[in-house]
Fold each of these.
Amino acid sequence: METYMRRETENRKTEALRSSLFLACFSEVNNSFPMWGYYAADHKGICLGWLYDYATT
């Protein structure tokens, strides 16, 4: 019984931690379905874009 309770406590802690984490992925391509499928939850998320002038760097 003690092992079961310990495992349940660890599972709750793991789920609480997992639900509070976020991931950022940087890519030159914003419509890669494999990337959205791998990094996003059920292909949900946002895509932020910006222009970067390579000539000035």
Amino acid sequence: MEKTLSPPPAAPNEAPADKATPEGATRDATADGHATSDGHATGDGHATGDTTGDGKATGDAVSGGYATGDKTTGAVPFFTQAAEFAELWPEIRANCAEVLDRGKFSHGAMVARLEEALARWTGAEHVVAVNSGTDALVLLLRAAGLRPGDEVIVPAYTFIATASSVVLAGGTPVFADIEEHGYGLDPRSVEAVVTPRSRMVMPAHLFDRLADLRGLHEVAGRHGLLVLEDSAEAIGMRLHGVHAGLLSTGGVLSFFPAKTLGAIGDAGALITGDDAIAETARALRHHGRGGRTLDNFPAIANATVLPGCNSKMDDLQAAVLLAKLTRLDAAIARRAELSARYDERLRAVRGVRAVPGAVPPHPGGNRVCYVHQIEADDRDALAAHLTAHGIGTEIYYPVPLHLQPCFAHLGHRPGDFPRAEAACASALALPLHPGLTDADVDRVCDRIAAFYTGRAAR
């Protein structure tokens, strides 16, 4: 019997998690290191544009609120899924009703369908759906053979999970700096930190392009290192037609709500062409049980072949993702249009040091605009100015990983990775999602230009 599901007023408004702000910065942060765009921490550590409980954007981030934008006040939330949900609701409703009718809410048929659909879309031989991008990283590292004490070289500038996953998998993160032009892991910096304990290199593909995989593979080859990809942000990014995460031993995808393909909660996947890694990861996600467990409830009695965890994807998340996957190409194209409009408007604004389109992708690579990030003079004051006018922003990332308190035992100091530290001091992400209008982009750009014009006049 088909369930009747009424559409919600809007999709939940969530923005990308971030890390703690540096000492003396103007933003407040939650205990787990998320920084909001208006300087106040929400209850769950997520920050977006400013939303009220009635779904209108106003200037404050409210835990659990909905963001739809408010054209009367000129507010522009950092992120919202409202427009996508309005367009896709018939498909989402049908998929969710199917899950409810079947009564299998985790690790079931809808998850199996999603794995198959993602394999077709990315070209992956194996897709292993799990409950978050972070878990996908941990399982990838374990399945690839990381041993206690092994070192994994990661960028100092990336989301915390790139490094914390190494710790959770039993290894030791070793930091290296990012490229001079761009945010990818710098192969020369990697080579400088290789030791006899180095086992793997794990670059992160950030914001709109791939890291320099050709250069990183050359370094890894010289030192006998395995390359894994933190491709959590990189759905749709390809090098010579090969999807991110499949250019090395394996990679991951994150479906956090604000991602290019986002769920309505946490979800993720491991992707690889390696049969053994896929088999191990499938066991690890379901408490280490061997054999086929996906959509196979009797397999709960299967033998436990290795110590695993509970990282199964929920079928309702898969139901939403399957519906959104049908529009992913269009969503990527719209993000590219919006990013190009930002670049055109901001390129000549004095005070905006860099726009994403100014740096081309590495040869053979494409751009997929997950985040539109500029580098700006007096970044914190600019962010406060935008917030005061109802425009949401995010900082990726306020503190480089080598200076995070959880890695203090590694003995790093300010100045160790200057390019990562410089990015943390000036980078600011602007609203970017398929529901954004050209007028929204113009409103953001006008406010940025007004901020720097006003400063010059003083």
Amino acid sequence: MYLTWVVHSNEALEEDSWAIIEINDNRFRLQEKTQRCIFITINLNTFKKSEEVQPLSSIAAIRAKSSQ
């Protein structure tokens, strides 16, 4: 089973620094980063996947730069 949470924030990739999240009285330890959903690379007008896999490629580059 997979859970999806939507979090609103003003800081890009803020979730990369989270170790624990708490919802009500329940604490969740985050074990690893997951890949971003591939659906954001699909053009909703043509239903074709971006050949450059954008914006995932840009997100990956930003994450790599911020982890150095």
